[in-house]
């Protein structure tokens, strides 16, 4: 899996969650994980989650670390499984970077500290690929619900982002390699 951390800020509005976005805009072909920092505001026209649409739930934040993952030759269940693995990797990354002082709780694909939400994410499929958007709060500003954020714990967003995309790429490559060394039964 190819990975890239963008040096410039990029605001996420939901339009980036589309097939070949990372390839067409950032030259990441094949399976990829793109990391960047920026605000988040997803209007209902670009919202993928049916529950959020039905409830008319706002998805927003003034400053977040985002990941866009794209991979091929799988299905929606595989994308959801990877989404939940990313959430677990994000939780352990926070724990590691905080020296064990911050321990987040994962519920499905969401991360919490007590009742404060730390992450947002969605997994979906396109005609050619599987896609995951995963993001965590850098700041609590601009969020529509009670949240916690990297700045609460003094964690560097770029270090967090670079560490997380490296972990995601490693795990994906490791899982792919595991499929190529088994005999059929």
Secondary-structure element sequence?
EHEHEHEEEEEH
- Report mean pLDDT, rounded to a whole number: 96
Broad shape? globular
Span from first to last CA? 28 Å
**Sheet/helix structural class:** alpha+beta
Oligomer: single chain
Got a strand count? 8
Please state the CA-atom Rg, rounded to the nearest Å: 16 Å
Helical content (DSSP H or I, runs of 4+):
25-40%
The number of helical elements comes to 4
- How would you characterize the largest beta sheet? 5 strands, mixed
Give the gist of this structure.
Helices cover 31% and strands 28% of the residues.
Describe this structure as you would to a colleague.
This protein has 185 residues and is of the alpha+beta class. The protein is 31% helix and 28% strand. It has 4 helices and 8 strands; from the N terminus they run βαβαβαβββββα. It has a 5-stranded mixed beta sheet. Strands 4-5-6 form a 3-stranded antiparallel beta sheet, with helices on one face. The mean pLDDT is 96.
